[in-house]
Every structure is written in C-alpha cells, then in structure tokens.
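Sample pair:
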Amino acid sequence: MTVKLVTPNEALLPSYIAALERNWTPSNDSAPTGARQLLDSILRNPAAFLTSLSNPEGKGRPVVLEDGTAVPRLPSCRYWISDGEYAGEINLRWQLGTSELPAYCLGHIGYAVVPWKRSAGYASLAIRQLLPIAHQLDLKWLDISMEANNIASRRSAEKAGAMFIKEFNAGAEYGNVDALLYQLLVS
C-alpha cells in the first residue's frame, strides 16, 4: 500500500463524496449538516470546490474570530491523503516570511483520517510528506497542536518525529480546551 499526498482532484472526488455520504467531515466524525453543506458545494460546482481547498496567497476577506475580531487570512494549502482513494487530508497554514504563527493560529498543520482507515499510520506519513513542501516555503519548523485528550493525534505527531513542547489552554476561540503543542523541525 502506497500512501501519498495529492492535490485535491476529480479522480479522488468520488471517494471523498463517499466519505461525506457517511456523514464524515475533516472536522468531525459525525457531522450530517457539515457533510451536507460540503456535498451541496460539490454538486453546485465540483471544479470550484476543488480550487477552494487551497489559498496559497492568503487572499480573501479577513477571518472573523468568535470575539468579533477580524484577523488576516493566512496562506494555506490542503492536500488529500490517498492510498488510491481518499483517505483523509492534511492542511498547511503559514505566515509569509517567517516560521512564526500569529497568536490566533495554534498550529501550522491540521490533519484528519477517515475512521475506516485509521491505525495504519496514514497521518504520520502525511505529516512527514509535508516536510519538503514546508521546506520550499522556507519554514524552519511546523507547530502541531491538538486537544490534550486526542491520543491518536499525539501518537501521529510523535511517530512523525515531532517533539512535545508544552501543554496550554487553547483559549476562548477554541473552547478553552487543554491542548498540547508539538514541534517538528523542517530540514
């Protein structure tokens, strides 16, 4: 089995749609409303949906936080994790000209694997495959944060080679959950 990162594409769109039809979304294992919204967006315009998944220039209106504060949109790219079909995704966020992130962004990357493909090392492989991309962006490290009770995400970060940095409160924007910060050096 070969696991690789790919740009979201029409060939994998049917297996992505199949995941959504199971009410899975990248942000929630059971989100019928969110899955329906994504499906509707795909049905309206599949090409536009695929294009919308990455914004490497950080273009667009500012992002409005829960407290009403408007903050600059960060550049980002989303990649699908594939083993021949859609298996999940990983996204990379960064700030131009620095490896630092603004306080409102808790990590450079976020990842999710569909439940039926978990425990096979897909997330840690995806993290490692993201390193050359981060290197091309002149990033020196990748911050990876997760809820403290997310054991699977912790294991994926550690298996990819990330080092534990600290435990912290994620703040009101993220539900005041206890979180962990890991850091992976980009060489």
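The first helix runs from residue 13 to 21.
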